[in-house]
Amino acid sequence: MKAIWTGTVGFGLVNIPVKMYSAIEDSALDFDMLDKKDHYNIKFKRVNEHTGKEVAWENIVKGYKFNDKYIILDDKDFEKAIPEKTNHIEIDQFVEEHEIDSSFFEQPYYLEPQKTGTRAYILLRDALRKSGKAGVGAFVMRNREHICILKADENVILLNRIRFAEEIRPASELDIPKTKAKPAEMKMAIHLIDELTKPFDIKKYKDEYSGKLLKIIKAKAKGKTPAYKPMKVVHSNTKDLMEQLKESLSAKKRKAS
Q1: Does one domain contain both 19 and 121?
Q2: CATH label of the domain that carries residue 131
Q3: Per-residue pLDDT tens digits for 70-109
Q4: Residues facing 159 on adjacent strands
Q5: Is the pTM for the entire model greater than 0.85?
Q6: Per DSSP, which regions of the chain are E strands?
Q7: CA 130-12-17 angle, 5° bins
Q8: How far apart are CA 177 and CA 205, in angstroms?
Q9: 20 and 130 fall within a common domain
Q10: Cβ(136)–Cβ(149) below 8 Å
C-alpha cells in the first residue's frame, strides 16, 4: 500500500509519527468511455476556455472567485491557513463512539507507526481499546480540513474521517407526516424485528451486482447473450398493515422450518 498522508498524532504531550493509508478499495468495475462508432477511448483535455488550447498540469493554478475577480493561491497559502494541522492530528477529546451519529462517517483510514513512534502508537492503541473510547481530532489533507475519530481496531489504529455538522442537510426540509403508529401494529413490528435480529457479520454481504455484471461481460466476450430476468417484487394480497405484518411473521417461520 502507498501512504497518502504522513504526519503525527498528538496525544497529550506525546507525538506519534504515523503514515496514513486508505482502508478501502472500490469493488465496482472500472469502465472506460468509448466512441459509439468505433469504440476508441474518449480523452478529456484541460482546455483554456478563452484560447481553446490545452494547458499542461504544471501551468495550472488554483483560484477562488472573490468580487468577480480570481484570487490565485499557491501551496504556501494553503499551509498558512492552518499550519499546525497540515501534518499533525491533535486529539482534542475522547468520546464514546456511539455518541457520533452514523450519518457523519465518511471514510476510513489505517494509521501505521513510523519506527520512532512504535511504543507510543501501541500505548495509544491499547489505551483506546481498554477504555472503549475514540479520540476526536482534526487535520488537513489535500488542502482541506477534516475532522476525524481514532479508535482501536484489532491490531491497528483506525482513523475515520467524519463530516462537519454544516455538511449534513437538515431533515426538517422533508415532508414527513407527524402521525404515530398504532400500538398493536407497533407491537407486531417489534416482534418481526426481534425475529429477524441476529449477530452482524459483514462477510456475508457481497457486491453481487459487480459479480453478476462481470459474468455478463465474460458471456458477451464469448458471443453469448445472457438471459434477462426482470425483478419481481412480491406484494401482499392485502393492504391492511396488520395483516401484512402477520404474513411477514408467517413467512419467516416457514423459512425457519
Answers
A1: yes
A2: 2.40.290.10
A3: 999 988 887 777 666 678 898 989 999 888 888 899 999 9
A4: 109, 150
A5: no
A6: 5-11, 14-22, 62-66, 69-73, 88-96, 105-113, 133-141, 144-153, 156-162
A7: 85
A8: 33
A9: yes
A10: yes
Grid cell 481530532 is found at 137
Asked if residue 4 lies in contact with residue 20, where contact means CB atoms within 8 angstroms, the answer is: yes
pLDDT in tens, 193-245: 888 888 878 788 777 778 877 888 888 788 888 787 776 766 667 678 788 88
Domain that holds residue 232: 183-197+205-256
- C-alpha cell read off for 34: 468509448
* In a shared domain, residues 136 and 239: no
The count of domains in the chain is: 2
Length of the chain: 257
**Cα gap 253→114, rounded to integer Å:** 54
What was the pLDDT predicted at 211? 80
Strand, helix or coil for residue 100: coil
**228: β partners:** none
Which residues, listed in sequence order, are joined to residue 72 by a DSSP beta bridge? 63
